[in-house]
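Hello again, I could really use a second opinion on something today. I owe you a coffee for this, so here goes:
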Amino acid sequence: MTVSIELVTMIVTVATTLLGLAAGFGWMITRTDTRFEKFEQRMDARFEMSEQRMDARFDKFEQRMDARFEMSEQRMDARFTKVDVQSDRVDARFDRLEGELKEVRAEIGEVKIAVARLEGPSPRLLVAR
């Protein structure tokens, strides 16, 4: 079997064309991959910088909020201390008033007894026999 030179040339041309297309596609994929890697590196750097800035902002915000909460806590502690002192004063007043009320009750009891003695026994009706 003889193969004509035109057929061999056509087969070699098709094979070379396919090999060229495959090599071109591989080159394009490699180049695109390199470009994506560079883009990814740039984006990673940007995100890292952005993350650092956000972390710094949140740290500052957290410090400010901690300071505010600390101040609020100190004010509330001062208020509660003041209320405790006032509460102790009120408790002392109530204790004093309770003692005074007991004294007044005792005196009222004595007054009732004195009045009853002054009035004497209640008049009784004398019945005729």
Q: What stands out?
A: The CA atoms of residues 53 and 96 lie 64 Å apart.
